[in-house]
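Thread title: Can someone regenerate the structure for this chain?

I was given the following input by a collaborator and told the matching structure tokens would be attached. They weren't. Posting the sequence so someone can regenerate them.
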Amino acid sequence: MSEEEEKKQENIDQELEKAESSEVTQAKSHGEILKEQICEGQEIYDRSTSSILMSSLTAGLEIGFSYLLMCSMFYYYTDKIPEEGLFKILAFVYPLGFILVVLGQSILFTEQTSLLTLPVLNRQRDLWSLLRLWGLVIVGNLIGGFLMGLLLIWIGPQLGIFDHATIIAIGTHVADYDGLVILVSALLAGWMMGLLSWLITSSKDTISRIVIIFIITATMAFTGLHHSIIGNIEVFSAFLAGPEVTFTDYLRFQSLALLGNAIGGAFFVALLKYRAFVFNVSDY
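Best answer:
Regenerated them for you:
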């Protein structure tokens, strides 16, 4: 690192140190939110591998409750509402799993994508440590999703709350797009999840956080944006339930959704939030 870059980084760190949260202030400043995000990201880096895997596996399981409600609602209203409208109505139950995960502080890949990027941008961690951590979180989230999918495929028909036709209908609806469409859609979803993480840090009470989570995730569901972790359960379950979704379809969807979500989250932080703060410091 050159002397000029070291000086610039020193100025950034000094400005972050000045960003002290205040209970009197009605709204947190950009620097306060950024500082909290960096500190929270650092805490995750400092956790043990087993702790990260267990927390991310928990997130993969918990987000499955959104899928449980979506399948149940789809099955109940199948003969009452046209399918096109039915997929829009599912947006009202889609946020449940995200509320459980975010408020419960389990590690969800798309929510943590931007958060974990910040210590790297601030030169406190390197790129390899970021990729390693992303890998651990993704593995945990996907395994949790696989387990939840296996459970729901069995329990849904047993309870009579949905059937395999419902599972296939939802899975094909998610996966039946051109690859470029899935990638760009997932990029937008990752961007929104990065924004969710930022807004959650800016809010001070639980009710506000629930409202933020609901608005962001319901918007994703209503517009059909692709989320790699809940989408993992949707498409994997459809693959298990019938021949309409093949394993190749699953791998294609999952790889594109993960890539898009990762780019969206990292892009959001790097170019819109962190860089905005750095440019402000550089203007002093």
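The chain has one domain: 29-282.
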